[in-house]
From TrEMBL:
<keyword id="KW-0819">tRNA processing</keyword>
<feature type="domain" description="Exoribonuclease phosphorolytic">
    <location>
        <begin position="160"/>
        <end position="223"/>
    </location>
</feature>
<dbReference type="GO" id="GO:0000049">
    <property type="term" value="F:tRNA binding"/>
</dbReference>
<dbReference type="GO" id="GO:0016075">
    <property type="term" value="P:rRNA catabolic process"/>
</dbReference>
<keyword id="KW-0694">RNA-binding</keyword>
<comment type="function">
    <text>Phosphorolytic 3'-5' exoribonuclease that plays an important role in tRNA 3'-end maturation. Removes nucleotide residues following the 3'-CCA terminus of tRNAs; can also add nucleotides to the ends of RNA molecules by using nucleoside diphosphates as substrates, but this may not be physiologically important. Probably plays a role in initiation of 16S rRNA degradation (leading to ribosome degradation) during starvation.</text>
</comment>
<dbReference type="InterPro" id="IPR002381">
    <property type="entry name" value="RNase_PH_bac-type"/>
</dbReference>
<feature type="binding site">
    <location>
        <begin position="124"/>
        <end position="126"/>
    </location>
    <ligand>
        <name>phosphate</name>
    </ligand>
</feature>
<keyword id="KW-0820">tRNA-binding</keyword>
<dbReference type="InterPro" id="IPR050080">
    <property type="entry name" value="RNase_PH"/>
</dbReference>
<comment type="similarity">
    <text>Belongs to the RNase PH family.</text>
</comment>
<dbReference type="InterPro" id="IPR020568">
    <property type="entry name" value="Ribosomal_Su5_D2-typ_SF"/>
</dbReference>
<keyword id="KW-0548">Nucleotidyltransferase</keyword>
<protein>
    <recommendedName>
        <fullName>Ribonuclease PH</fullName>
        <ecNumber>2.7.7.56</ecNumber>
    </recommendedName>
</protein>
<dbReference type="GO" id="GO:0009022">
    <property type="term" value="F:tRNA nucleotidyltransferase activity"/>
</dbReference>
<feature type="domain" description="Exoribonuclease phosphorolytic">
    <location>
        <begin position="10"/>
        <end position="139"/>
    </location>
</feature>
<dbReference type="InterPro" id="IPR018336">
    <property type="entry name" value="RNase_PH_CS"/>
</dbReference>
Length: 237
């Protein structure tokens, strides 16, 4: 049996709490079971120098784990003087994923910065960050519409992310830490609600897995992301 007696194709309990930060233009506290991430979207009227005068905006992201987000305290990366390769890689993944579903020309010459701070980690922190980041981004763009700065929300598609993996020979949706740490293979899917692929990261941990198993992981991800997008839509109404 899986932890919490979940079915192989069942998500953890997922919630998207909007308005979790009183100051950010868009914010969401996303919970995937025991993984909790605070996602905020900040609108910056300045843009990177290499984009000036091009009539388009930018979306970027920063990811971090708070010191007691895991069982033992980790020192802040700022105190160590540099970010880890993992932090940089996940930050870039979040930014790429969100830029795939926003019309940067419609956004105009402004930047939206998505900050994803992991408050508690139990597997799937990057996928939770992307899913919560979409909510924060949508809400920030709605603020621009409400203020009359934009005529329509430039976010043109629903998207989310979820992890899948092979544990004890079975393909499973939305791995928590005890499963992820024992997985023979794991994958992170970033998809639209219609099943469009934005990014897939997949690797075997010990022995190769088959194309049929990859197809099953993809099927699980498509169904799971459809559920996640419905929850996101309900949250931003």
């Amino acid at each position: 049996m899986r932890p919490n007696n979940r079915a192989l194709d069942q998500l953890r309990d997922v919630t998207f709490e909007t308005g979790a930060n009183a100051y950010a233009e868009g914010s969401c506290l996303v919970k995937f079971g025991g993984t909790h991430v605070l996602c905020t979207a900040s609108i910056d009227e300045g843009i990177p120098r290499w984009l000036k005068g091009k009539g388009r905006g930018w979306v970027t992201a920063e990811y971090g784990m708070l010191p007691r987000s895991t069982h033992t305290r980790n020192s802040r990366e700022a105190a160590r003087g540099k970010q880890s390769g993992r932090t940089i890689e996940i930050s870039r993944l979040i930014g790429r994923s969100l830029r795939a579903v926003i019309d940067l020309e419609k956004l105009g010459e402004r930047q939206i910065i998505i900050d994803c701070d992991v408050m508690q980690a139990d597997g799937g922190t990057r996928t939770a960050s992307i899913s919560g980041g979409w909510v924060a981004l949508w809400l920030a763009c709605e603020k621009l519409v409400e203020a009359g700065d934009l005529t329509e929300n430039p976010v043109f598609a629903k998207m989310a992310a979820v992890s899948c993996g092979i544990v004890d020979g079975t393909c499973r949706l939305d791995l928590e830490y005890t499963e992820d740490s024992a997985a023979q293979a794991d994958a992170n899917f970033v998809l639209t609600d219609a099943g469009g692929i934005i990014e897939v990261q997949a690797s075997a941990e010990d022995t190769p897995f088959s194309a049929d198993e990859m197809a099953e992981l993809t099927r699980l991800a498509v169904e799971g992301i459809r559920e996640l997008c419905a929850l996101q839509q309900a949250a931003v109404k």
